[in-house]
Design a protein that fits this description.
Residues 274-293 are annotated as: Disordered. This protein has helices at 20-26, 32-39, 145-154, 156-179, 184-193, 211-220, 246-249, 281-292, and strands at residues 13-18, 46-53, 63-70, 89-91, 117-119, 124-129, 262-266. By secondary structure, it is of the alpha+beta class. It has one domain (13-282). The protein has a 5-stranded mixed barrel with strand order 1-2-3-6-7. It has a two-stranded antiparallel sheet with strand order 4-5.
């Protein structure tokens, strides 16, 4: 039997839901008018995979920053300008449906929904509120270390396709600049708007890799592109930073932390959702944008 924990363990599936009133209170914007507006906001409950905590679990903490991947019940929403297509997903058993016939990952215990997928490049940082009664993991659904590695390896083909997409964009940019050097500035601006194609050589740009994949690549010594060193790669926007240790070392707090979505979380994923009520990860993104405007 697992003791109740201060924060959820990584590599587990959980449910998350935005808590706008708690977020306002954390920002000290809890006046009556603002709270009344927040109470009109009705957030949905989302299925997510917990990647890794970005804060040290410490007594007295109110929340923990966590990198999570919202789970979809459909194929991925394509993002044409980033080379992301709808088939860049991995099914979660018992779901075995995939346009390219990919092998699903197998959680333990059995996953309660038969229509779910991991989406490529869907991870986001949230702040999970600490619960007074802790997080119970006894019947929580998780991926083993082997299955998690298998999940990331099955995405390697997609990252290669994304890399090829940007390489083609770079080649087109170079060709256009040779034909008409005066268009170089315009073409460079256009390339940056589709994700920085001019930064690619023959590999995948680190900024388009998830924090989990970067950690895995570092551990395995995977070369992410000729002339690119994983040790010298820029930090992922969802990875931990020096600001994580502000309370230990007395450094100035990050003023943007209060804008990171504050969520409640539950480990018993089959008690709050059904297969036909799982919202799209896109809806979570829309809710966050609406809440912080």
């Amino acid at each position: 039997m697992t003791d109740d924990l201060l924060v959820p363990l990584p590599c587990h599936y959980a449910l998350i839901r935005l808590n706008p009133t708690a977020m306002l209170g954390d920002l000290r914007l809890d006046d009556a008018i603002t709270l009344a507006e927040a109470e009109k906001f009705k957030p949905k409950t989302y299925l997510a995979f917990l990647l890794w905590p970005e804060d040290l679990p410490l007594p007295g903490m109110r929340w923990c920053r966590y990198s999570v991947e919202p789970i979809g019940a459909t194929l991925r929403t394509p993002i044409q300008e980033q080379g992301i297509t709808s088939d860049m997903v991995i099914p979660i058993a018992p779901n075995d449906s995939h346009p390219r016939g990919r092998i699903p990952v197998h959680p333990s215990p059995s996953f309660p929904f038969a229509n779910c997928f991991h989406w490529i490049e869907s991870n986001v940082t949230v702040r999970i509120r600490v619960r007074e009664d802790g997080f119970v993991h006894d019947r929580a659904v998780s991926l083993s270390a082997e299955e998690h590695v298998a999940l990331m390896r099955r995405f390697e083909e997609d990252y290669e396709r994304i890399g090829n997409f940007y390489a083609e964009q770079e080649a087109q940019l170079h060709h256009c600049s040779l034909d008409n050097p005066q268009n170089l500035k315009t073409q460079t601006t256009a390339a940056s708007q589709v994700g920085g194609a001019q930064q690619f050589t023959q590999g995948v740009s680190d900024e388009h890799l998830s924090a989990a994949y970067l950690r895995y690549a570092r551990e395995e010594g995977i070369d992410l592109g000729r002339g690119s060193s994983i040790d010298g790669a820029p930090a992922s926007p969802t990875s931990a930073s020096d600001d994580d240790f502000v309370d230990l070392f007395g450094r100035a707090p990050d003023p943007t932390t209060g804008l990171i979505p504050l969520v409640d979380a539950w480990m018993d994923i089959d008690q709050h959702l059904s297969a036909d009520s799982i919202p799209s990860p896109d809806e979570l993104e829309n809710e966050v944008e609406e809440m912080i405007q």
